Structures are given as structure tokens and as C-alpha cells.
Amino acid sequence: MKTKKLTWINGVLLLILILAFVANLCGGVQWYGLNQLWADPNLMATKIMWTIRLPRSLSVVLVGALLAFSGQLMQALSKNPIADPSILGVNAGAMLALMIGSLFGISLSVFNTMWLSICGALITFLIVLGLSMTKQGIDPLRFILGGTVFASFISCIAYAVSLLTNSSVQFRNLLVGGFSGATYSQVELLTVGIIVVIVLVVVLRKSLTLLVLDDATASSLGAKPGVTRIIASLMVVICAGISVAVAGNIGFVGLGIPQVINYLHPDALERNVVPTMLAGGIFMLVVDLIAKTLAAPTELPLSALSAIFGGAFLFIIVAKGSRVTQI
Amino acid sequence: MSMKRIFGSYTMAILLLIVLSLALLAIGDIHLSLLTTIKTLFGDSSDRIANIVIWDMRMPYIVAALTTGSCLAISGLILQSLTYNPLVDSSILGVNAGASLGAVVLIGLAGIIKAINVDTYLPVAAVFGALISLLIVGIMNREGSKMQILLGGVALTALLNGIILMVELSLNKFDFDKVLVWLSGSFWNLDPGFLTGYAIAAVILIAITSGFSRELGVLMLGDLTALSLGVNVKFVKRMLMLMAIGMAAVAVSVGGAISLVGLMAPNIARKMCGSKIQVLLPVTCLIGCVIMLLSTLVANNLFLPSVLPVGLVVAVITMPYFLYQLFRY
Q: DSSP letter at B85?
């Protein structure tokens, strides 16, 4: 019964994902039909479809999936339903690292952006974790509040850096988020990332699920909670890092999606990975389509759109409050 | 708290205030000697360059810093006292972001409808925005825990900042720097007439608040005690809340959404001179001014020839302090 429901949910989500993907591919300043893809390759519209729209839509799906998954993992790691890499400053850290790196003359090739953003994400993650450790362990609300303020602290430094070096135009995409410059090499990077993550999930699926239990119980069930936690943290950092490298500072995707999926289908983490990733992809496709088309030819800032959705969502959870305070 | 300590904290705050003001007037890309600065301040008009530099170029910064600093600090003190929560201020509750959004929407509307005069309606829009965001957070205030209210404010700020970013970027597509005024704060209008108006408004609001200082002190003991001491709790609370909103709106109109000064100033003042409100109120005000003056000094001079928006410097100073306070206990 349970597996049946899961297959059903996955099927529906996959269908919506395909529809959203097609809509995202066709939408933009000008709407093109899907048949444009197989039209005369010398036509402008066909070229646009292949060289601009397709890599963009692909990276949108992949970034959505990665961010949603990293949110899910983070919520399991911190045993806290309102955690997300952007709330805890991991995204902002990756962004700052990218900016500083490029100002020191490191060319922003795909490989360089990857390691720079992963380093930045890792450092901020460790700082936030270190800050929120108290003698009684991690206090969830304090963890999030501290992380949020730390995130805006990092963003302010990033703004200051961009102002001082007169590079806010150059870094505009990074600061406000967006997929307008997506290329196939970025898609490759994201694909490698998502494959690594999926392989790790398949290998570690049992221990990841046990993360939500307390350490003693997990150990008695044969897991190694310490090791798993380190690997899971690394996965969060990798997911968030390469997402920022491609799409800039987009927040809050990882916050709502895992919760919605968990509401529809309350189950172990390992079985909810696929639907969470699918839903993350769908959400990102829709938001990106809105950003592209709502005020065309201007492109709306993606970080603003996701902050509006995510901020409202966070406010509602906190206001309802019961689940958060009980933990 | 002994008289000596109270006297000491007054002297220290005032001394810092004077030193920082003089530094702000004297230091810059045109250096003036201390003697020239003081002479010019006392009306010596023999040095024309010094006169222009001090009165026309640097004095506006001091007025702006003093206005925003005192307003944010006192509104923070009021909010902290009324909510019994030392980690609260107008920026973390989303009030500053709300006022900021009000200002941004007004400026956007003025671009479309030419009949709207930004200067006249700016305070109205800021107060309106601040009021709405405070009401939204207040809905949670009824039963929420302290942390929950803070987190709600932070979430609201994120939401409002998203809207601000969107409105601003659609107004001026390529000018990302300008967006920062309303996201993190900057003295965006240094016109003397504009600043004088807000400085007078600030002085009036502060005067009214100090008129209520006895009641504020009694309220800190709890509603019941205040009632039994003959304070009209409901009226006083509303009045003080209104003052807090008004002052936050004044500060935002002058300097954009400057963060966490209202959180830092009362806490430092409390450490210096205890929590007796008649002393705490003026000292908090002074400390707020000191923080803003210091930030302005750093913002204007550290990275010459580029000038940073003051809000970014304030954030770099105050946010670590907030984290320290949050994780201390």
C-alpha cells in the first residue's frame, strides 16, 4: 500500500515536472512552440532554443532538485523542520567566496567556481554550527535565528565588497540570483553533482534515515551516526555550493519543498528523496518561468521571488509554531 | 547603581560623542587640523575652504547620524521594555523593513504619478509601512515564545526585502547600488532642509518619550504593578508603541533600513548604568548616536576614495554583537 502510494506520487510529480519543463523551455520574452526545436537549424528561434533556453531549463531543474534535497538533509541533520542552507548562511558563504576568489584574479571557470563555492559553503556551515553549539547541544530556534543573522552579515560583507570594487554589475547575477547566463558546461557540473549525491544516497540510505533518531538509538541499530553526519553535512555543502555557483544566491527552496512532501507522504528520509527532488525541480521551473515572463523583457530577480515565497512560508510555520516549539 | 557610575557613563558617552563628531568633521579627503575645525565651528569665517567643508559637506552627515542613532536606539529601548525581551529592536521585528518598503513603494508610485511629492509623503509612507509590519508580527506576539517572535520578525524581513528588491530593480534595472539603501541603509539624501525637518521631528518624538519615562520605568515592573501604581497601562503602552514606530519611521526615512542599532544601544547602556529608566533613556540615546557616528566615520574614510553605505558598516558592527548576545546564554 505504502509503496503503491509512493509510486503514484512520483508518477504525478514526474508528469508535472515534464509539463513545467516544457513550459519553461517555451516561455521567455517570446514564446516559442516546442516544434521550434526541430525546425530549420539556421532559424534564430531554433538557435535560441538550443543554445539559451535548453541549458537554462536543464540547470533550473537540477538546481531546484539539489537545493530541495540539501534542505531535506539539513532538516534531518539538525532534527529541525525549519532548516535550509540559505537560512543558515551556507549560500551566502558560497557567494562571498566566489566574489572574493574572482577579485583575487581566479578565473571563474566551471571547475574554479565549483571548488570556491564549496569551500565558502563549508566554512560558513562550520561557523554557524560552532556558534550554535551550547553545552546542552543545539537549540533549534537559536540555531536558525543565529544562522539567519549570520547569513545577512555575510551578505552585507558581499555587498560591501562588490561596492568597493565597483563590481556590482559584474556580480549582479550572483547577488540577485538568476539563470540568465546558464551554459552547457554548468549543466554538466550540476549533473555530476547530482549523480554524486544520488550515489551517496543509495549507498547510505539506511544510515541517513537513522539520522533523525538520537545517537544512542542509531548506534544500537548498527549505524555510525558521527560518520554519517559528516558525510551528510558534506553533501549539503556540495549541493548548496554548486547551486550557488550556477544560479547565485537563491534561498528558501530547501525550506518548503521537503515539508510539503513530508506532509503528503510522511515516510522515511530515504524514500522521500526522489519526490523531494522532483518537487524541487518543479518549484524552480515555475518560479523561473515567472521571473522570465511576468515583467518581460525585464527579468525579475530570482532571489527576491524565492525570498517572497520562502519568507511567507517561514512566517506561517513560525506563527503556527506548535511543531517547532515542541522539538 | 552608584551616582559615581552614572556620572561616569554620562561623561564617557558625551566625551565619545564629541571626539567622534570632531573626527568626522576633521578627517576626510580634505584634512583639517583640529584647531581649524573648532575655530570654524565657533563661527570663525576666515578660512573659506574649511567653512565649506565643515558646514556644507560634513555637517549633514553628523545630523543624519545623530537623528538615526538616537531614534533607533530609543525605539529599540521602548520595544525591549514593552516586550520584556532584550533581543528585540525595530529592525529584527521587521518594522524597519516595513517602513523601507513603504518608502520604496512611494518612490515607485511617484515615478508613475507625477502629482505625488516624495518629500511630503515619505514620512507618511514610512509610518504606514512600519505600522503594518508591526501589526503582522504582533499577531504572533499573543502566545508566541520570545524566540518565535524574533524568528517571525526575521521571516517577515526576508519577505519584505524580497518585495523591496523586486520593486527597486524594476524601477532602476541596472543600479544595484541604489537598492542597498533600502535593504541595508545609507544616508541617501544629504540636503540640509530635508535633514533639519527630520531632526526636529526626532527631537519632538524624543521629548514626548521622555515625558513618559516614569511610566515606561514602571511598566518594566509588569502590567499589574504599573496598574496598582496608578498608570493607565493601555494608554501608555499604545502611546509608547506609537512613539517607537514614529522614531523607526524617521530613522528609515533618513537612513534606510539600518540594522540592529536599537538592539545594541540599550544593552550596552544597561551594562554601563543599570536599568533605572531616567538614566537609561538618555544614555541609550547617546550610545545610539555614538554607534552611528562611528559607523559613519568608518564608512566615509576607511576605503577612500570610495564611500561605503553606512548601513553595511553598521551591520558589520552590530550583527556579531547580536550573535554574541544570542549565544551567550
A: -
A153: left (phi over 0), alpha (psi -120 to 50) or beta: alpha
**Cα B251 → chain centroid:** 5
Mean pLDDT of B203-214: 91
> What is the predicted pLDDT for the residue at B258?
87
- List the domain boundaries for chain B: 59-328
Nearest to B185 by CA among B256, B236, B121: B256
Structurally, what CATH architecture does the domain formed by B59-328 represent? Orthogonal Bundle (1.10)
Instruction: Tell me the whole-structure pTM to 2 decimals.
Output: 0.84
- Minimum Cα–Cα distance from B324: chain A residue: A131
Q: Note which residues in 213-252 of chain A have CB less than 8 A from chain B.
A: 251-252
Q: What are phi and psi of A260, to 5 degrees?
A: -60, -45
- Cα dist. A174→A106, A302, B121, B206 in Å? 16, 10, 34, 42
Does residue B15 or residue B46 have the better pLDDT?
A: B15
Q: B138 Cβ partners below 8 Å, 6+ apart?
A: none
Specify the pLDDT at position B14. 92
Instruction: Answer whether A176 sits within 8 Å of B161, measured CB to CB.
Output: no
Give how far Cα A85 sits from Cα of A74, A172, A238, B2, Å.
7, 21, 11, 48
In B, residues 168-227, which contact A (CB 8 Å cutoff)? Answer: 169-170, 173-174, 176-177, 180, 183-184
CB contacts, 8 Å: A149 with chain B = 154, 319, 322-323, 326
A88 at B interface, C-beta within 8 A = no
Q: Is B2 near chain A, with CB under 8 Å? A: no
Higher pLDDT, B250 or B190: B250
Who wins on pLDDT, B3 or A96? A96
Q: Which amino acid would we find at residue A142?
A: R
**pLDDT (tens digit per residue) in A103-152:** 887 777 777 888 888 899 999 888 887 777 666 666 677 777 888 888 88
Taking CB atoms and an 8 Å limit, are B148 and A321 in contact across chains?
yes
| Interface contact A152-B259, CB threshold 8 A | yes
Place of cell 524514500: A271
Report which secondary-structure segment, H or E, holds A175.
Answer: helix A172-176
**Chain B residues lying within 8 Å of A134, measured CB to CB:** 327
ipTM: 0.82
Q: Using a CB-CB distance cutoff of 8 angstroms, which residues of chain A are in contact with residue B162?
A: 303-308, 311
Cross-chain residue pair A252–B160, CB shorter than 8 Å = no
Q: Which residue has the higher pLDDT, A252 or B16?
A: B16
Nearest to A52 by CA among A86, A27, A73: A27
CATH architecture group of domain A2-326: Orthogonal Bundle (1.10)
Q: Does A156 touch chain B (CB under 8 A)?
A: yes
Q: Band of the pLDDT at B65, cuts 50, 70, 90?
A: very high
Task: Tell me the C-alpha distance between B313 and A159, whole Å.
Answer: 11
Chain B contact for A7, CB < 8 A? no
Residue numbers of chain A with a pLDDT score lower than 70: 1-3, 133-139, 168-169, 212-216, 218-219, 222-225, 267, 296, 321-327
Chain-chain contact of B326 with A308 (C-beta, under 8 angstroms): no
Nearest to A138 by CA among A125, A148, A128: A128
